[in-house]
Every structure is written in C-alpha cells, then in structure tokens.
Amino acid sequence: MSTSHFRPGVSVNQRRSQRILLTVPVVVSGISSNNAVFSERTSTLVVNAHGALIQLREHVVAGQKLRMRNAVTTEEISCAVMDINPGNTVIPEVGVEFSTPNPHFWRVSFPPADWTPRSSEAHGTSAAPMVSAVPASKK
C-alpha cells in the first residue's frame, strides 16, 4: 500500500503495522462523483491492521469515504481513500485506511511491528512467525 500522504509521527521507512500479501474478497461501496450509490466486488492485494490495498474500477478520489464488507465474514468497516495508483493495469490500485485500526477485520495474526526477516525468530523452521487464520465469529 503506497501512500503519498504525510502522516505526522510516521517516518518514510516506518510502518504502523506489518503488511501481509493476502487476497480477501471484499465489497466496497460509497457515493460516486455523480451522487449515485455504487457497490463493487473486488479483493485485497495487501492488508494490514490499518487498511488495505485493493483494485477498484469505480472512480474514487483521495479522502473519499467508503464502506468495506469482508465477503467471508460479512463484517463491515468504514474507510477512506488514501492513495490512488493507476499502475500498469487497467484497474487502479487504491489504498484505503480504516477509520479506526482493526487488525481482526482480516482474521489473521500480524507479526509484531518490530519483526523483520533478520529477527532471531526468523532463523528456524519452527520458530518463524507464521500468518495464521483466526477463527471467524458468526454474528
């Protein structure tokens, strides 16, 4: 999730939470530029505790408020468009940020913020942090 917006207290090389390459089917909805309600089924490319990187056909603008529904759990969350990258594909990549951090939205366990591939936990087959599914609770 690239983001060109400045965030106070976060340096260029510092992340607030670890990123995970994870495909989760989601439904993104909001109000289009012509004031029509839209809803688009897509999936994540990258996730973290603060949001996701998705591909979105609907034209959106930075700062635009959206709703995202996890198609697996049906949980919904408010988010905002933080970055739009036209990239090399027909469908732009859109970085969205949750209105409130929610690491449980994706139902995965994130590595600690200070974890790196050089961490001592990464040097062994059984000690390396693994992305693990957290059981989804039905509401």
Task: Provide keyphrases for this structure.
single chain; 139 residues; mainly beta; six-stranded antiparallel beta barrel; disordered N terminus; disordered C terminus
Written description of the protein model:
With 139 residues, the chain is mainly beta. It has a domain at 1-8 and 43-111. It is 0% helix and 35% strand. The chain contains no helices and 7 strands. The chain has a 6-stranded antiparallel β-barrel with strand order 2-3-4-7-6-5. The radius of gyration is 16 Å and the shape is globular.
Rg from C-alpha positions?
Answer: 16 Å
Strand order within the widest beta sheet: 2-3-4-7-6-5
User: What is the count of β-strands?
Assistant: 7
Instruction: Report the biggest beta sheet as strand number plus sense, adding barrel if it closes.
Output: 6 strands, antiparallel, barrel
Measured distance between first and last alpha carbons? 30 Å
**Helical stretch count?**
0
What would you call the structural class?
A: mainly beta
Low-confidence stretches: 1-12, 125-139
- C-alpha geometry: globular
What is the string of SSEs from the N terminus onward? EEEEEEE
Helix content: under 10%
Strand content: 25-35%
SSE blueprint and pairings:
Elements: E1 20-21, E2 25-31, E3 37-48, E4 51-55, E5 65-70, E6 76-85, E7 93-98
Antiparallel strand pairs: 1-3, 2-3, 2-5, 3-4, 4-7, 5-6, 6-7
Can I get a quick summary?
The protein has strands at 20-21, 25-31, 37-48, 51-55, 65-70, 76-85, 93-98. The protein is mostly beta strands and 139 residues long.
